[in-house]
Amino acid sequence: MEKEKAHKKRQKITIDTKIMIIEEKESTNKSDYELAAKYKVDRSSKKRCRLQKGFYHLVEEAFYKWVLLAKSASIILPYYVLKEKAMDFYSKLKTENIEMREGFEASDGWIKKFMKRF
After folding, report:
1. What contacts 86, CB < 8 A, 6 or more positions away?
2. Does 112 lie in the same domain as 61?
3. Radius of gyration of the chain (CA)
4. Is the same domain home to 25 and 74?
5. Are residues 74 and 106 in the same domain?
6. pLDDT of res. 107
7. What is the predicted pLDDT for the residue at 117?
8. What is the pTM of this model?
9. 99 with 55: CB under 8 angstroms?
């Protein structure tokens, strides 16, 4: 009979820890094993720690800067204004021939998720 492998208990890794691991990996010559030991995570978890840019990351970057400026000026931003501005940024980037995925819609869901991320 084959021996059954003992299953390891799943360990959650916070986004902050993932970011620290990625930044340290990029800035140092530490191996995956060293980083895994330092942050007490399984070495294979590192493969799952890649941050992905969204399909519309350029829109999000421009929109984020605009939201910060508006907040610093204490401007209240209703959803319809946020939607219009996000669509403006998308349109401007498309007219500048920047390759982006088609079909961007600044929906309520997109706005909510954006605000949660940033």
Report:
1. 59, 63, 106, 110, 111, 114
2. yes
3. 20
4. no
5. yes
6. 92
7. 78
8. 0.55
9. no
Domain that holds residue 16: 1-51
86 neighbors 106 (Cβ within 8 angstroms): yes
Quote the tokens at residue 34: 């060293």
Indicate if 7 and 35 belong to the same structural domain: yes
CA angle 38, 32, 21 (to 5 degrees): 60
pLDDT, position 66: 95
Joined tokens for residue 113: 């998720």
Residue 48 or 22, more confident: 22
Q: Tokens for 49, please give them.
A: 């720690």
> Tokens representing 8?
């390891």
Q: Check whether residue 79 and residue 32 sit in a common domain.
A: no
- What is the C-alpha to C-alpha distance for residues 3 and 28, in angstroms, rounded to an integer? 40
The CA-to-CA distance between both ends of the chain, in Å, stands at: 53
